Amino acid sequence: QVTSFQGVAVRSLSTSSPHDHPEHGRLVYKGNLAKTVLGVKFFSYSTSIFNLFMMPYIMLKSGIGVESLLVQAAFYGLIGIFTFVTPVTLHILTKGYVIRLYYKDDVDTYTAITYNAILAEKATVFHQKDVKIPDITKMFTTFYAKTKSMLVNPTLFPNPQDYNHLMGYDKSSFFKLEDLEEVKEADKR
User: Fold this and answer.
1) What confidence category does residue 78 fall into, taking pLDDT thresholds of 50, 70 and 90?
2) Is residue 4 situated within a structural domain?
3) Based on the number of CB atoms within 10 Å of its own CB, is 17 exposed (0-12), middle (13-18) or buried (19 or more)?
4) Is residue 131 a part of any domain in this protein?
5) How many CB atoms sit inside 10 A of residue 142's CB?
6) Residue 45 lies in a domain
7) How far is CA 119 from CA 45, 98, 104, 122, in A?
8) pTM for this entry
9) Is the pLDDT of residue 16 over 70?
10) CA dihedral (45, 49, 55, 57) positive or negative
């Protein structure tokens, strides 16, 4: 009991926030679909591996080697789609999904944590000036960090100012004061 009390006391004396990361900075975003994306990709990979190991057994038991070449091509094509195309497609669609986003105030850099092809976390570091907003809204892209597409949900930022700074909305205004005055003068005429 004394050990657990000491552990609690040590944790409560810590000066850093539980959302800070010593290397990446302050946590500004956490994706709510991180576990779902990981689970779907893991399920897809595991079924693909299962298909690869079961393929010889299925070919032996089904006698497909005796059938025509067209039937063999159709069978192998169908198995190939589920074995290879599905995991690759899932990876392409979800590779830019940001599971966590950290921000370092002092150097104005972000670190986006995503999943790579082997389901490990991958860190992408970029400056705010590297953020490009696509001209045309894309389905799985909120912004580009350098050339890599990233997907975030703006409503999941606890502080909306963090999202505004990430996207550069705090630096450029759509209407400058002079433009607003010109519009008012044009309306008076």
Assistant:
1) confident
2) no
3) exposed
4) yes
5) 20
6) yes
7) 10, 13, 26, 9
8) 0.73
9) no
10) negative
Confidence of residue 64 (pLDDT cuts 50, 70, 90): low
- 103 vs 31: CA distance, rounded Å: 15
Q: Average model confidence (pLDDT) for the chain?
A: 81
User: Rounded to 5 degrees, what angle do the CA atoms 117, 154, 105 make?
Assistant: 85
- Among residues 97, 98, 101, 94, the alpha carbon closest in space to that of 158 is found at 101
**Full domain range(s) for residue 127:** 23-171
Rounded distance between C-alpha atoms, residue 72 and residue 66, angstroms? 9
Q: How many domains does the chain have?
A: 1
What does the block give as tokens for 150? Answer: 């990233």
- Does any domain span residue 5? no
Q: What digits encode the pLDDT tens for the residues 127-153?
A: 999 999 998 888 899 999 999 999 999
Phi and psi at 86, nearest 5°, equal: -60, -50
Pairwise CA distance, residues 126 & 154, whole Å: 18
